[in-house]
Write a structure and sequence with these properties.
The chain has helices spanning 3-10, 16-30, 69-81, 99-110, 126-135, 149-155, 161-173, 191-203, 230-243, 253-258, 260-267, 281-284, 299-312; strands at residues 33-43, 86-91, 116-120, 139-141, 177-184, 208-213, 250-251, 273-277, 316-317. The chain is α/β, with parallel strands linked by helices. β5, α8 and β6 form a beta-alpha-beta unit. α1 (3-10) packs across α8, α2 (16-30) packs across α9 and α8 (191-203) packs parallel to α9. The protein starts with a helix and ends with a strand. The structure holds 5'-deoxyadenosine. The site of 5'-deoxyadenosine (5AD) has 12 residues, from loops.
Length: 318
């Protein structure tokens, strides 16, 4: 599909045939498995001032934390014990940090056979990305956020789309399974630019893509704007499935925040992955990138509940 065709599809009166197509492509290429990934939000310290993000460096209402080596590895181990086979380590972006600290954590988690480590720690220099890869990190998530260079510039006072893409290309070249993605409904975003977002995933040869609605945070420059449309978000996921048949596409947490039923619906439009927070409760409330209410973390019980929800949609939790 080209840009015009994707734009037209996003605007269709009735999208049901597209959903069916996306679901069929998902079945043929990915089967009925739904991968559940454990995510640990190990630090909310961030150097960047992205306008949409609640933990951006300019928000001085945030209670900043960084989990210790021990807290992180013990949380990861509890997740592995509960059945998770992928641990996602996510944090704000800091660049002056000693990479060896995170390197040791990656190595420790990788001692568990068959466990994959995914990093989501922002833009990093090539050397640092290479070091983490050498420590055993398997995958890397870095959403491009928006493929519109002008809008990207407005929302990111300390970065450019070009640098973001350069970093994503480094990640790919280093042999990481590479994840990008974007937000829908950003103020100033057009339908055409969402088509560009989907095409950029293809151009970057993404192995994974997270697509979620923008949700305004009250303590950011975008406070008071409106959130992204769940329907457009699901359509974008379906089109991403059609265009990237083999990609791993999560049902983003933000979609579930707008409407809990959305999670179920998104599984029938091409998605095959879901992430579950295993961040300890004392920290979880301070990792507030958008307003949301999250219940208490009970690692084993949460996983069992999620498995049930997936089985109810006739899919197989992994
Ligand atoms: N609404 C929705 N998604 C957001 N993210 C950050 N802030 C928001 C928000 N206000 C997403 C970005 C980022 C990921 C970790 O969370 O896409 O890459």
């Amino acid at each position: 599909m080209n840009k015009e065709e994707i734009t037209e599809a996003l605007l269709l009166e009735d999208f049901s045939l597209m959903y069916e197509e996306a679901d069929h492509i998902r079945l043929v290429n990915k089967g009925d498995d739904v991968f559940i990934r454990a995510i640990i939000e190990f630090s909310n310290v961030c150097a960047r001032k992205c306008f949409y993000c609640g933990i951006n460096a300019a928000n001085n209402k945030v209670n900043r934390y960084r989990m210790s080596y021990r807290e992180i590895t013990e949380t990861a181990e509890a997740g592995i014990k509960a059945g998770y086979r992928t641990v996602v380590l996510q944090s704000g972006e800091v660049r002056d940090e000693d990479p060896e600290w995170l390197g040791q954590i990656i190595k420790k988690i990788k001692k568990h056979d068959g466990v994959a480590v995914t990093l989501s720690v922002g833009e990093q220099d090539h050397d640092v990305l290479k070091y983490y890869r050498d420590c055993g990190a398997d995958r890397y998530l870095l959403k491009h956020e928006t493929a519109d260079p002008e809008l990207y510039g407005k929302l990111h006072p300390d970065g450019t789309l070009e640098e973001r893409i350069r970093c994503l290309r480094d990640i790919k070249a280093l042999g990481y399974e590479t994840g990008s993605g974007f937000m829908t409904g950003l103020p100033g975003q057009t339908t055409e630019s969402i088509a560009d977002d989907i095409l950029l995933l293809k151009e970057l040869e993404c192995d994974m893509a997270g697509i979620g609605p923008f949700i305004p945070h009250p303590d950011t420059p975008l406070a008071g704007t409106s959130h992204g449309d769940p329907e457009i978000t699901r359509r974008a996921v379906a089109l991403a499935r059609i265009i990237l048949p083999e990609a791993n596409l999560p049902v983003t947490t933000a979609l579930g925040v707008l409407d809990p039923n959305e999670r179920r619906k998104a599984f029938s439009c091409g998605a095959n992955v879901i992430m579950k927070k295993i961040t300890p409760d004392i920290y979880k409330k301070d990792y507030c990138i958008y307003p949301a209410v999250f219940g208490r973390t009970e690692i084993e019980k949460d996983r069992i509940e999620l498995e049930k929800l997936i089985e109810e949609t006739d899919r197989r939790p992994i």
